[in-house]
Amino acid sequence: MCYPSFSSRKGAGVLFVEVFMNQKKRAGLVNGVVVSLLVISFLLIVFQPITRIMQLMQDTSVTARH
After folding, report:
1. pLDDT of 2-20, one tens digit each?
2. How many CB atoms lie within 10 A of CB 38?
């Protein structure tokens, strides 16, 4: 079974949210910090390609006008 990257990302996100909720239930302060760091890194991993694609699209539209 091979999924397109978006749906696999979405699946990973759902799994991540479930893990995050489980962590929150038995959360200590350390757990909270670790989880928040994981969330930040996860968001960076997910959104970096999106911002790069948007930049590429903007670049192509700018060059197309000239």
Report:
1. 444 555 666 667 777 777 7
2. 14
Backbone torsions φ then ψ of 4, nearest 5 degrees: -65, 155
Q: Of the candidates 10, 31, 13, 30, which has an alpha carbon nearest to the alpha carbon of residue 22? A: 31
What residues have CB less than 8 Å from 23, skipping those under 6 apart? 31, 35
Whether the full predicted model's pTM is greater than 0.70, yes or no, is: no
Contact between 9 and 46 (Cβ < 8 Å):
yes
